[in-house]
Amino acid sequence: MSDLLQADGLQKSFGALQAVRKASLKIAPSEIVAVMGRSGSGKTTLLHLLAGLERPMGGKILYRGEDMGGLNEDALALWRRANIGLVFQAFHLIPTLSALENVAFPLYPMRLKVAERRARAEAHLDQVGLADRAQHRPSRMSGGEQQRVAIARALVNNPPLIFADEPTGNLDSTTGDEILALFNKLRNETGAAFLIITHDDKVAAAADRVLKMVDGILQNEKGQDNEKD
Amino acid sequence: MSLRYLFSELRNRPARTLTGLFSIAIGVALFVSLQAYADGYRQAARAPLVEVGADLTAQRQGTVPGKFEGVVFPHSTAPIHRDEIDQIQKLPGVQAVAEVMFFWSFEPDGFVAGLGLDPSDTFGPGRLKVSITAGRFLQTGDHAVAVADSTYAQQNQLAIGSVVMLGGQSFTIVGLADTSRAGQLANANLYIPLADARTLANAAPQVRSVFDIRPDDANLLFIKTDQTRVDQVAVQVRQILGEKAIVSSGKSFAAELGSLFALIDRFGLLVGLIAFLFATALLLRVVASSVWERRREVAVMRAVGWRRRDVMIQLWSETLVLATAGALLGLALSALITWAMSRSLITVPVPWELSPSPHFLEGGASTFAVTVALPARLTIDLAAWSLGLSVIGASLIGLWLPRRIAQIRPAEVLTNE
To answer: What is the complex's ipTM, to 2 decimals?
Structure first.
């Protein structure tokens, strides 16, 4: 199977701190990859590099075989809009918008008819089981519900790749399990691949592959039983 | 740009929205109201001239006669000779000149303020014809007849057909006029044909003793001008009449309105602009704090695929809508304020030079004034200017700040918060 995303020798430093050192990985379609590591090990920086939110100082990223290095900021934004969904630990929903409007948020700059935008947002909100909470603002929803809204937002453009940064980090155990089950369901329904940054063993257990990040070094690319690469 | 997101932001952040809205509204209201107030005063200052349909009056400072006996010229008038009148009539911008002979007559039975006028004039004292309350107005070719001010007639038991003496000559009253309706600048007790007034003046010893009086002279001119050349004509008339010229215009009446008007007239625009700038600064602060508070939101926008331009247009639109709504609210407030201002009456003092009676008599110059409602109004021009300034100010703010914030690195914000 051809790789969806391939990173080779990624490097990123912040001053004297080497956050990511020559990290390489591949993500295949429909694959769930977990990256584990302690706080400060460079996991989130790796995710930002892969999502085009940070520029690597070395190495390259290929998406469906295309080198992303030559894209400017706006081109990267458009690339993310079309190909990447992002889920954050802190949800990062817009507090003044309803659940439905938050899901539609990535669609706002696109020239879509209101009805079409609404239909897409409703469909994805329904997909995460929150159709009945469409008009609620984030402040009136639980953490688990907010994370579901954030996941629906990540899915609204039907991206083939979802990056999730500690998606269960702010949730209780039961809700975290529900989110993992949702990821699996979505993978099966949409064929999307997931890269999940976590230090939760349960999340790692649900992944097809687990990579470890230690002091900026991505280890054990082939070290897990469920490795598909 | 998403209108839904835009209005959702404005609606759901009421403190920020109301602060921005009212800061602009108050700035615009102050700016517009001050301009409307100053403009209203400028209009009001012209009221004494507008009442008589003239743009300027011209006279020449006279000389105190040896005796107040018979016909004399008020101290503020001296003969204006035919050649000078002709020169004035030929000035560029001068549309018409109404010649008047203004005099005081000290008769054995009392004092009379008299005015000789040409009844064919359609402005200046000629407007008196619409104020006739009994009898008729003067006609071309009339001789030895007079129109009396109705109040003066009542006080002196005069009626149509009564005979009054002026400079030893008798005049039969043919009409009564309510001079208060005809303009304070053309005010006298008796109005007689200009030719008769000239004859009286030329024969009066107390006029001849101090002036070089000639048969075709006048001593007060009402001048109609092209509105764009009023000031130029005033300057040229002063040059023709020499150093003792007294030329009154809307501006000179405005000078009588006192220090408050002078301050508003001189600094109104400046104060208005400062108020406007202050409002813009407040808006800048509101937008700046809003944009700063929303860094995380902007980072999310960028992360989910908004281009910098998309972010900038969205935030710029919010500022623009806020400023436009604020400006419209400010204009509504201004309309209310100018309406309230227009309900107030202001008194425009008329300079003593144009007083109909000697200041040393009871009820003389000191009580001579014109009272009008302040013609303050919100003009389309003023409204358009304020709205335009608000939109331009907001556009600049709305482009500068969001442009900066759109440059943020989403990873940095989303990592730290």
So the answer is: 0.88
